[in-house]
Amino acid sequence: MSKKPLILVINDDGITAPGIRTLIKVMNSIGDVVVVAPDGPQSGMGHAITVNSTLFIEKITVDDGPQQEYSCSGTPADCVKLAIREILDRKPDICVSGINHGSNASINVIYSGTMSAALEAGIEGIPAIGFSLCNYNWNANFEACKAAVKTITEQVLKNGLNEGVVLNVNIPNLEEKDLKGIKVCRQARANWEEEFDKRQTPFGKDYYWLTGKFVNLDKGEDTDQWALDHGYVSVVPVQFDLTAHSSIQQLNSWELNGK
Amino acid sequence: MSKKPLILVINDDGITAPGIRTLIKVMNSIGDVVVVAPDGPQSGMGHAITVNSTLFIEKITVDDGPQQEYSCSGTPADCVKLAIREILDRKPDICVSGINHGSNASINVIYSGTMSAALEAGIEGIPAIGFSLCNYNWNANFEACKAAVKTITEQVLKNGLNEGVVLNVNIPNLEEKDLKGIKVCRQARANWEEEFDKRQTPFGKDYYWLTGKFVNLDKGEDTDQWALDHGYVSVVPVQFDLTAHSSIQQLNSWELNGK
């Protein structure tokens, strides 16, 4: 058996997206790569899983790289589950997801299919990283991401991650020479100010498109959004124990049991 | 204007599900109720949002209660966004989501459309609660939930919640007389041991159904799963800042910038 690490590659933009093709190329230089990715775009799927429908997997060849590839009809989280239970012979040494076309920094982590794949792998006890480039364009330039993606992946393989923690890595949309470095950060407090674009169907029925703008409410200089705005690659350790431990005492003072 | 609280009611099982009909009845006894819920089941949608498709809203009447109701073609998170931006005249005093048909305790919070609606409201600064009954049956008995749902909602209206925190409430599948009380908890460490049921289409192609069993890996007596197993309603404060603050120092010791 090869002594190279076994690397599971996933994304949410679909198996043919330029972002995952770049990620596969970088991972081929590190280990043995198996790709299990959605057969089409799944952005904004959050942590969806397919419970009421069937799942199809197809072994495919997209380019001439050494990786093995499977396209899947399900969500990113489904892909992780199927990879582990049905495709891989052994537990992968690492799972990398992305490179997403668009930011998953700050509150976007909540909506992210890219990060949900990483979280799903983390729940299975696999060190995992989600990578995103802050450019929504299909034809974004992913070349500048390669060095940071490789460095961070190698550091995770070398050092491991704490139990219950995965990494959310975002890369600013810059030329490689303009990247300032890699910064460990916390998630910025931010939200989307949505606006709905209200229209009418040709048959007179109202409908809506979701639009909106991202608003950073956080002035801290230790946040992922600050790092990205200042030319750094941001690395946020993300946990899936969502308990707000600091609120437990407050809630215990409430009259919940007729006291 | 009425001095009663304005209550936004959402769910992920669809607007006609018995769980939301029970929740509406309880909320009608507390305040002015506006329902904005999916037109069909959305379970397992996680925190999905509809970014690449249109959204339809329809004002409907389901029963003879005083509530206003809107059915929506989108996900639970879409419903919250549409309610706030397009339907309600003012910010609701509270948002309640559910009552979900099935547990959202422990790791299920990650996959939960019910909780994603509550989180979305929380991101908007609205106190929010997700309620779930530990019975997946459409015809589950929701009567026993009513007292706990009312108590917890009234306590949130009275005391408020810390910024960035929403409540994940799960109710064991018991008769009301057998409920032991309400317990504030942390999220249990658990996962799903998935198995895929592999079949063939009539045309000879393999496909899979996702199945699996829930495994509680946490022996603590302060967890939601422990509370539910011992007859208590569990209340977990949940946060949407996913930063694993305790890992930041570890990551800062890594060689991320060629040092």
From TrEMBL, chains A, B:
Its EC number is 3.1.3.5. It catalyses: a ribonucleoside 5'-phosphate + H2O = a ribonucleoside + phosphate. InterPro entries: SurE, SurE-like_Pase/nucleotidase, SurE-like_sf. Residues 7-194 form the Survival protein SurE-like phosphatase/nucleotidase domain. One of its GO terms (molecular function) is 5'-nucleotidase activity. It holds the Pfam family SurE. Nucleotidase that shows phosphatase activity on nucleoside 5'-monophosphates. This is 5'-nucleotidase SurE. The gene is surE.
